Model the fold of this input.
Amino acid sequence: MGERITFRRPDGKECAGYLARAVGADRAPGVVVLQEWWGLNDQIKGVADRWAGAGYHALVPDLYRGKLTLEAAEAHHLMEGLNFADAATQDVRGAVQYLKVQSPKVGVTGFCMGGVLTILAAVHVPEVDAASSWYGYPPPEAGDVRTIRIPLQGHFALDDAAFPIAGVDALEARLKEGKVPYDFHRYKAQHAFGNETGPNYVPEAATLAWQRTLAFLATHLKG
Done:
């Protein structure tokens, strides 16, 4: 369904990505979809295709510049090598700006590492209209979440070893301090419960989180 494209970052450099367009709707809302630590693989392309089927132009920026892996150790290495500030303020912002040429409103959603970047985009990318993070959150020093002024949704696993639920509680407290419009959900599951190709997939939780994300972004991007 989608195609490989390149778009320009705010600093003028180019970034590649996978774009799946909503059929028959040039002015459809847009959503930037952010990968897990595996890279821009077929699974995350499939997520973009689902968004296109739901009536959105969906763009997945290639944060690893073409690198992919199936090994957790290599994925960790690739993620450790990623400059999160640059990814959020340049790759993600460039993707949002690219979609904004046609889409009146653009949201961001992401998973794991992409969930971290989703929240950072809510902090640092002024063009974003709404954000939905799946099982990922940034460390406090990465940005002041109290400054977020767009609607923020989160989906978190109660038994997440990578992103402990105590960190979600602390994040929620900071959002309350900033009077951020947020909507958090917690699921009896482990990390990456929404990835249908992974060992922690929980169909019931994944379906509920997807339905909630669809409803959330429809409210804030299609209205």
